[in-house]
Amino acid sequence: MLTRKDGEILKYITNYYKDTHFYPNYEEIGKGVNLSSKSSVHVHMNKLEDEGIIIRKADYSAQYRIKDIDNLINDQSKEDGWILCSDRMPENEEEVEITYTRQDYKTGETLYYTARAFHEDGTSNVENSDYCWDNDNDLEYDEKIDLYIIPEGWWEVASCMEDFAKIYTPVIAWRLLGNPYKPN
């Protein structure tokens, strides 16, 4: 049976792999889950191997991979309603909560943020949109239909104002919005 720390390590490795497509080394794992030595990490990695979760390369015990990593990433996302953008996108102009990433300009660390946003698939025009678009939004004019086409991408929404702005950083996941609070 896995301990809480084993689960923390597994989640750290999974998130690290999801972001970089590489597995973290023992030192990175230790820093990520607040373990002070590589030998402590090694003990937990042995447990994950015994449980059949990780597979180590026979000739080098620190080289490993997680069995069924893609399924683990998908299961982790589904726990709290998050859907990976690589799996599917929301309906056109459906407002959702997103997770996007940015690099810290000082440390290079990947930072995660959430926002309310909608996605455009590049097939809509300004006339059939629920939003008020102007030429400041990088619209492309289509002479055949005599309308502006809305470009593909994510747009952050300020819900209390009818304003929105293009998101230029990677959006990695989204989930449906919850219902607003209503007093009894």
Keywords:
Arc Repressor Mutant, subunit A, 184 residues, alpha+beta, 10 strands
Summarize this structure briefly.
By secondary structure, the chain is an alpha+beta fold. It has helices spanning about 5-20, 25-30, 40-50, 70-80; strands at about 55, 60-65, 85, 95-105, 110-120, 140, 145-150, 155-160, 165, 170-175. It folds into two domains: about 5-70, Winged helix-like DNA-binding domain superfamily/Winged helix DNA-binding domain (Arc Repressor Mutant, subunit A, Orthogonal Bundle); about 80-175, no CATH class.
SSE blueprint and pairings:
Elements: H1 4-20, H2 26-32, H3 38-50, E1 54-57, E2 60-66, H4 69-79, E3 83-84, E4 96-103, E5 110-120, E6 140-142, E7 147-149, E8 153-158, E9 163-166, E10 171-176
Antiparallel strand pairs: 1-2, 3-10, 4-5, 4-10, 5-8, 6-7, 8-9
Helix pairs in contact: 1-3, 1-4, 2-3
Task: Characterise the protein shown here.
This protein is α+β, with helices and mostly antiparallel strands. It has four helices and ten strands. The strands form three sheets. A six-stranded antiparallel beta sheet has the order 3-10-4-5-8-9. The protein has a two-stranded antiparallel ribbon with strand order 1-2. A two-stranded antiparallel sheet has the order 6-7. Strand 8 and strand 9 form a beta hairpin. Helix 1 packs across helix 3, helix 1 crosses helix 4 (69-79) and helix 2 packs across helix 3 (38-50). The model has no long low-confidence stretch (mean pLDDT 82).
